[in-house]
Write a structure and sequence with these properties.
The chain is of the alpha/beta class. It has a 6-stranded mixed β-sheet, with helices on both faces. It has a 6-stranded mixed β-sheet with strand order 8-9-7-10-11-12, with helices on both faces. The longest helix is centred in the first third of the chain and has 15 residues, at about 90-100. Helix 1 packs parallel to helix 13, helix 4 runs parallel beside helix 5 (about 120-130) and helix 12 packs parallel to helix 13. About 40% of the residues lie in helices and about 20% in strands. The chain is elongated and about 80 Å long. The structure holds guanosine-5'-diphosphate (2 copies). The site of one guanosine-5'-diphosphate (GDP) has 17 residues, from helix 8. This is GTPase Der.
């Protein structure tokens, strides 16, 4: 039952996870040759060989990371989707439909030197139904002479046309301002967590939390006072490990050993939850001398659901003999199936054995927690994977994975944009392969699926 709960943490709670989606998606649509790729390159601020002379040529890379004024978003060039509908107009209308259902905002690019064509009008008609914001770019306005043409694009009924020259860069900053304004709010990049990284030390009663904290702090209580400019919550402990200062959160209870006195399990579990929520990385202390318990699994569930990085510390290793070690390995294979990504460290708070291995493990876990795979790299890998092993057919239909983006870090969160539901088993397969390719040891990875409505 505990494993089912863990599973629900990964597969369920979709809505909550959507809410914390932090990298919005902009889809770019328009007829061939209006300058979509040139504009995408302009927005990305680099010249990349995605401009094709032949309209309709499939581009294998269609999603990119963009950054403007500190706001990060994913830009999707729908030219790469190559909708198979008959006729150009139908194809582009289908493309617009798809764009609407997979993005947070749509950028329609029109060639101002040509004016609105019937195809542009058909696309505009589709986009006017969109619940999402639509920005209208009037491209190829290389100079002032085309401004009358630009004004005529009001007729598309999508609001003010934004003149731009993708080729020369004219007004592209203004267009980007409009785009960023239209996208949903996302946290700004480049604000590192202030001060030492926050660690929670959790585990069932008597597993050795106080002992470990005492071992770690040992003689170095003085550190607390010598840290200039850090306000330390009196319930936290500052600990120097491996030349780095760490903030162990909510340790007051551990020091005072209140847990045995009025330690109802409910109270203990609230404390554990609070400590996990306040942390970035969690040391889950497990008793190596005893079988893995329900309580241990509950704690692990909390960590996974909270999306925190994690290190598993098997304490009381001094009590483990050859027989027990063998038995433990078997237990763990079954017991820890949902956190195979967590590093295991065998320690003894009593003797101090291997306690110094904790800091490197914490660092690795946090690096994974902070890691972001660039969208281009992610899609290159994903398209190969999906081509080799497509999602299982469901109700006679083969869901297609259109593209993916790593929408968030802390915890790393992937969003897959698909044409159909992906089974939990297939998502787990993707996660496993993702980890094989990109690592992420010590951190949970969330995979959300956005199905085209
Ligand atoms: P896409 O098919 O919509 O992706 O269009 P491309 O980006 O491949 O551009 C089609 C052609 O229009 C290319 O020859 C571009 O150099 C040209 N082009 C794109 N933007 C501009 C622009 O702002 N001004 C002018 N004069 N030409 C442009
Ligand atoms: P807490 O309730 O998780 O804070 O656990 P404590 O730190 O109070 O430890 C509970 C008991 O386990 C105490 O009697 C400790 O001495 C003992 N203990 C803690 N760590 C170890 C260890 O590594 N080896 C052994 N043999 N005993 C330990």
């Amino acid at each position: 039952a505990e494993f089912a709960a863990l599973d629900a943490g990964v597969d369920g709670g979709q809505e909550a996870e959507e809410a914390q989606l932090s990298q919005p998606v902009l889809a770019v649509v328009g007829r061939p040759n209006v300058g979509k790729s040139t504009l995408v390159n302009r927005i990305l601020g680099r010249r990349e060989a995605v401009v094709q002379d032949t309209p309709g040529v499939t581009r294998d890379r269609i999603a990119y990371d963009a950054l403007w004024n500190g706001r990060r978003f994913t830009i999707v060039d729908t030219g790469g989707w190559e909708p198979g509908a008959s006729g150009l107009q139908g194809a582009i209308a289908a493309q617009a439909e798809l764009a609407m259902s997979t993005s947070d905002a749509v950028l329609l690019v029109v060639d101002a030197s040509v004016g609105a064509t019937t195809t542009d009008e058909a696309v505009a008609k589709v986009l006017r139904r969109s619940k999402r914001p639509v920005i209208l770019a009037a491209n190829k306005v290389d100079d002032q002479r085309l401004m009358a043409e630009v004004a005529s694009l009001w007729s598309l009924g999508l609001g003010e046309p934004q003149p731009v020259s993708a080729l020369h860069g004219r007004s592209s900053g203004d267009l980007l301002d409009k785009i960023v304004e239209a996208l949903p709010d996302a946290p700004r990049e480049g604000t590192p967590t202030a001060g030492p990284r926050r660690v929670a030390l959790v585990g069932k009663p008597n597993v050795g939390k106080s002992s470990l904290l005492n071992k770690l702090t040992g003689e170095q209580r003085a550190v607390v006072d010598s840290v200039a400019g850090t306000t330390v919550d009196p319930v936290d402990s500052m600990v120097e490990l491996d030349g780095q200062l760490w903030r162990f959160v909510d340790t007051a209870g551990l020091r005072k050993r209140v847990h045995t006195a009025n330690g109802t399990e409910y109270y203990a579990s609230l404390r554990t939850k609070a400590a996990i929520d306040a942390s970035e990385v969690v040391i889950v202390l497990l008793d190596a001398a005893e079988p893995l318990s329900e309580q241990d699994l509950r704690v692990l569930t909390m960590v996974v659901e909270a999306g925190r990085a994690c290190v598993l510390a098997f304490n009381k290793w001094d009590l483990v003999d050859e027989d027990r070690r063998y038995q433990l390995e078997k237990e763990l294979d079954r017991g820890l199936v949902r956190v195979p990504w967590a590093e295991r460290v065998n320690i003894s708070a009593l003797t101090g054995r291997s306690v110094r291995k904790l800091a490197p493990a914490l660092r690795t876990a946090l690096e994974s927690w902070d890691q972001r795979v660039p969208t281009g790299q992610l899609n290159g890998w994903l398209s190969d994977l999906v081509a080799a092993t497509p999602p299982p057919v469901r109700g006679g239909k083969q869901p297609k994975v259109l593209f993916a983006t790593q929408a968030a870090i802390r915890p790393p969160t992937l969003v897959l944009f698909t044409t159909g539901f992906l089974e939990a088993g297939y998502r787990r397969f993707i996660e496993r392969k993702f980890r094989e390719r990109f690592g992420f040891e010590g951190s949970p990875v969330r995979i959300n699926v956005r199905v085209r409505e």
